[in-house]
Amino acid sequence: MASLSKGSIAALIAAFVGALCLLLESNLPWLVKFPAAWVLPATDWVGAFMEWFLALIKPAARSFSALMFYPMEAANYVLSRTPWPLVICATTALAWTLGGMRMALMSVVGLGFVLASGYWPESMNTLALVAVSVPLALIIGGGIGILANEYPRIRQPVQALLDIMQTVPTFAYLTPLLVLFGFGPVVGLIASAIYAAPPMARNVLLGLERVEPEIKEAAIMAGGTRLQQLFQCEIPSAGQQIMVGVNQCLMAALSMVIIAAVIGGFDDIGWEVLLTMRKAQFGQSLLAGSVIVVFAILIDRMSGTLTEDRRAKHDPRVAWGILAFGVAASAAFWGSVQAPGSYSLFNPVADSLDSGLSAFTSANAEILTAFKNNVLFYVLLPIRIGLDQAVLPFTWGFAWTPVMSLWLFAAGAAAGAVFAIRGRMALGVMLLIAAGMLETGVSQLPWPFVLVGAGGLAWVAGGRGLAALTVVLLGTILLSGLWERALLSLYLSGAAVFACAVMGGAIGLASAVSSGVWRVVRPICDMLQTIPLFVFLIPVLMVFQIGEFSAFLAIIAYAIVPMIRYTRHGLVSTPDEMIEAATASGATTWQMLKDIRAPYAAPSILLGLNQTILYAFAMLVIAALIGTTGLGQSIYLALGQADVGLGISAGAAMAILALIADRMVQGFAEERRKALGL
Amino acid sequence: MTGSETPAITCRNVWQVFGTNAGSALKDALSSYDAADDVEAELRGKGLIPAVQNASFDVKEGELFVIMGLSGSGKSTLIRCISHLLHATGGEIRIDGENIVEASPKRLIELRRKKLGMVFQHFGLFPHMTVAENVAYPLRVQGMKKKQRLAKAQEVIDLVGLGGRETNYPRELSGGQRQRVGIARSLVADCSVWFLDEPFSALDPLIRRQLQDEFLEIQAKLKTTIVFITHDINEALKLADRIAIMRDGKVVQIGTPADIVLRPVDDYVREFSKDVAKGQHAHVSSVMQSGAHHVYGADDPGLRQDMTLDAALARCMELYEPVPVRSPDGTLVGVVNPADLAAALQVEQG
Fold first, then answer.
1. ipTM attached to this prediction
2. Shortest CA distance from B136: residue in chain A
3. DSSP H/E element including B195
4. What is the pLDDT of residues A223-243, one digit of tens each?
5. Could you give the CA distance from residue B27 to residue B50 in angstroms, rounded to a whole number?
6. How far apart are CA A102 and CA A89, in angstroms?
């Protein structure tokens, strides 16, 4: 062991600082708990600045708001006044043109369900918002993408801006928007345009960058002006990628419009979900949630056909026929059709679901509570506040004593030593650190240790620059007084990410090994990814009521998908030649998996983990609706009180955590990719 | 080769340097050193990449000029300088006497619309346009009416033998067919200077030979000035009027196919022509002693100056005396010693 690796050095320093903090804890309490006197009133400063700034641009914003009122009213009027048979037929005709019989059927069944549920008018209100915000997002996003392509110099800042637009939690910018534009649907509209523009911009830029250089050169040599080259050759050549952007833009807009329902003031389907959820009418809530899911699936699948490589042509006469039928039906039954909101075919189902649910929960109360309590007491709580406080006689059956702490550290040290002797120094020290964190609890980690540990990790992942960035950004949170809440957020999302990594990794592995498993898992993943964030809350609430545990489950349900997908994709996409070479060398299936596929898949799996982390942070804020502590809660509270300073600061803190995690994992993935020569 | 006064293309001391502040670095280096090698060393020392170094040559009107070299030798960069897809870092490039390095963007668009055509290695076809739309695109950017431009496109589509494929999309065509589209597109605007960047490299050997033959036919018909890039010595010898061989950014030899095969300037060029069947590419004129005053023997096997060495050798296998060589119209133009014919074919012993 002549020289220590980067990882070992970082781990040793972190372990040393951690141990020092623990030892000095009783004498120097400020080492663990950052003293309130040191905190800068950053939240107030931000609030004051924002108020000044918002007041400055308020007139412009209000006139924009007034301007947007007209297209919104128009869209609303058209969608709510058009007879429902015509809306269904028009959508179905479009579906046929895009995807033939299958898509048309999907449209009829989906919209039929919406109609029968009685949520038709609310759905149309939501669609009207989407219909106005999407073109706005497409224009903004497309414009940004094209400009970034034209002027390479602004590409870097634009990418950073897009990162921020997507990592700052959606709730956080609702608050300033609320102050700017006043209560009302315009806020939802603008928030969804802001949220939906980045994917469009990214895909436009990516598509334009990926146009073959020879196609660009051919356009130049044909004698086209720059505008001709761009609009006649490059943009159409990038069509497929741009359509991916349109698809993502649509989904993001829908998701955000529904989240924006939290503000209220617009009688839409998201509001319906929230209202019924608050009244604990879970049957109705689930019904309204299903309507959202139906829309999400329809919009996703229909716009998804645009991204396909070679689309089959479908006879346009059929589409015209469907449309004509819709017009005829509307004309024939004008006046005699029921108001679309009056159908309630599924109400009995919802009611029986409600009563069935109460029966189920009361019948299985013991099992459910036991499950919930077990996870809470034996997993979540120790991670949060540490074994020394979580282990109590009435939960674990005995009290935690210093002797036990000693044993824990001894066990950690012994295991660490074994690894260190076998040459895995970094891993060994990390084991020791893990033992210390388990003893202390994530939410009570000494702040010097967190700064040093995170900085060290960043140093290993991405070098000195990333380490400096990490320490500075975390220091900002520390000084702003949001530290404890940030640690709470870190704990909950960390626990959820860990659970996702273990379970998602296992499911991904199973899906890679057996195609039968994948056949079952894949549609579930597709489904989970299409569902707007909001809807995840309903089923967990139904069974486990409000609380941290429900939030934990909702986060897992949402964030596990990328882990599954990327793990499987990484494992199955090992090049055939390598598999053949391993087979020729006589490797068994298990050896192949362990020695060939897993190392090759590592970068892909890390990217999956990265996505999972970002998803978890996004869901964390939404989950604040059903009871979590930490930054998410602050953001949500700020929204209620229109406290711009708190909203922005907490949102920024959240974005900082997500950003740091993102950069670190990307750094590790990059290193693996380089090591594999990819 | 017509003996026109101004060359169609003139390159004088052309440099293409990649890297930050390449322009000023080149200017500095050029002012402090005279020899190109010193300039190169200076630039490389600063971490810059001189992809084309001090290239100078003329291409005559109607000439088929081939630039040959291995990948990374700078040949593709050079053709992009001449077609101004890249702005040359230094030097002078004239097309019909006009210095295009200093041309305005507007003038460049005009030049491309009226004068220049280019064919790409991977075809560079627009995936969202049909064959006819692809071919007619250079006319579309000029604002020509649809009917007119499609009619004009039809002529070149027929010329390259793609009649009947007009409404297909590029993805529905084979590689050979795609390159025919690329060729048609580059010809549709009646260019007078035609750039081809490894046009046949991506095709399999049989299709490649077929397209080469058709290309020669088209060239015989149109007589445009051509700059043709290839890494294939056989292709170069087959097509070229003259060949420029590039290595590491430098033009190492310019000459006729026979010059390249029979009189390589260095080992690098010799290495290229090693595997070439010299007898098929060199002609009697390249080894004969010209002039009507030479003494020759009694036998006259009927050699012509444009015969390949192989063909000539077959006729005088058993002869030892010098024999007369005549031009196609029968006048005596020189003599050749059969031993010289055989000697020219000798491959160096590795």
1. 0.80
2. A222
3. strand B193-197
4. 889 999 999 999 999 988 999
5. 13
6. 15
